[in-house]
Amino acid sequence: MAENPLIAFDESGNTGANLVDFQQPIFTLASVNYSKSEANSIINSIFSGNHVSDPKFADDIKGNKSRENNLVRFLSSSQANHEKIKVSIYHKKYLAIGKIIDILLEKCAHQDDIDIYKYGYNIALSNLCYFCFPAFYGESAFKQLLHNFVAMIRYQTVSSIEAFYSIVETMLNLGDNQEVEYFQGLLSIILKSYDYIEEILLGNDHLSLDPAIPSFYLHCVRWGEELNRPFNLIHDDSKPISATQDILEMMMEPDTQTTLIGYDTRSYMFPLKARKIKFENSKVDPRIQLADIMAGCISFWASNYIEGINKKSNKSKNTLKKEKRFFKKLDNLNLFELIIELHWPQQNFTPESLDAQTGEGTNAIEYVTEFLENRTTEN
Question: Rounded to two decimals, what is the model's pTM?
Answer without folding.
Answer: 0.95
